[in-house]
Amino acid sequence: MTTIAKHETTIDAPAGVPWIDITREFDATPEQVFRAHVDPEMLKLWLGPRDLEMTVDRWDARRGGEWAYSHRRGEDVFEFYGSFHEIREGERIVQTFTYAGAPDSVALEIATFEALPDGRTRLVNRSIGSSVEERDAMVASGMEHGIVEGYEKLDAVLAGESGD
């Protein structure tokens, strides 16, 4: 049996600015955490809440590449898409993020993978919307639940478990 350390996910949405900062530490190297973000087979194991089934339609993790995936719960389908602006192996991913249900709301996401002592990683993800109102709508959507559960699943994937 593997024991997985619990880490807190910090979601900071400061008043008056259109961004959200999400910070989380992992008991894995930056290269391992980065790989879980660019390998679509690994991504399917951890991204999103446990009660949603994930399908990756496109995942071309390189500068100028595009991505698309959907989450399904019964008859409800939630589709997302975007493009990769920058991929810096083990260090940084810059991409756009759009929920198909709100195609006029495009966020820019900047993920950085910081090395910590003992082979650990701090992941910092800044998501910048086009307005404070869009950002507030994202926060009100219940995104926190999906992020926290997804990162718990990522802990399991990084520990060599299935993530379910």
Biggest sheet strand line-up = 1-2-8-7-6-5-4-3
Can you count the helices? Answer: 4
- Morphology call: globular
Using only C-alpha atoms, the radius of gyration works out to 15 Å
Order of helices and strands: EEHHEEEEEEHH
Helix percent reads: 25-40%
Number of strands: 8
Structural class: alpha+beta
Characterization of the model:
An 8-stranded antiparallel beta sheet has the order 1-2-8-7-6-5-4-3. Helix content is 25%, strand content 41%. A hairpin with a 6-residue loop joins strand 3 (53-59) and strand 4. The mean pLDDT is 93. The chain is an alpha+beta fold and 164 residues long. Helix 1 crosses helix 2 (40-46). It has helices spanning 30-38, 40-46, 132-140, 143-158; strands at 10-12, 19-26, 53-59, 66-73, 76-88, 92-99, 106-116, 120-128. It starts with 9 loop residues before the first strand and ends in a 6-residue tail after the last helix. The protein has 4 helices and 8 strands; from the N terminus they run E-E-H-H-E-E-E-E-E-E-H-H.
Top keywords for this entry?
alpha+beta, 41% strand, 164 residues, 4 helices, globular
